[in-house]
Amino acid sequence: MHATLRTKESTSRSSNATIRALENSGTAEIGFLYDNTPHVEHQHRSPRHEGACRIAVTGLQPMAATGHYYTSRFTVGDMDFTLVDRSTEYSRFTEAQSADPDHIGS
Fold it and tell me: What is the reported pTM?
């Protein structure tokens, strides 16, 4: 398994992924390490860093997920995901963003 996250400012790529099914819950947890590389124009305030992430998904074809992350910059955060589509054809954040009707122009 591999996860790639694209934002307006950076790209993260996973390594060392694990999937753990929580017994009788219908929920699985995906855990992975990642390396984040900001676009050059943002590196002065957002340096390259590593982190760890855990995401929980429920059901055979989940439409949403929640998770949290920790970084080597000593930051933490929560995440909420909503499925836009199952395509893997997006190579840039703006391409994926344009496919999300709720966030067009954001």
Answer: 0.72
pLDDT tens for 60-104 read: 888 899 999 999 999 999 999 887 776 777 777 777 777 776 765
Q: Calculate the CA dihedral of residues 56, 102, 106, 95 and round it to 10 degrees.
A: 80
CA 102 from chain centre, in angstroms, equals 18
**Strand, coil or helix: what is 97?**
helix
Cα distances (Å, whole numbers) of residue 59 to 1, 64, 75: 18, 10, 30
Name the burial class of residue 54, with classes exposed (0-12), middle (13-18) and buried (19+) by CB atoms within 10 angstroms of its CB.
middle
Q: How far apart are CA 30 and CA 95, in angstroms?
A: 25
For 95, the 3-state DSSP assignment is helix
Domain positions in the chain:
4-98
Token representation of residue 50: 């590593």
Q: How many CB atoms lie within 10 A of CB 53?
A: 21
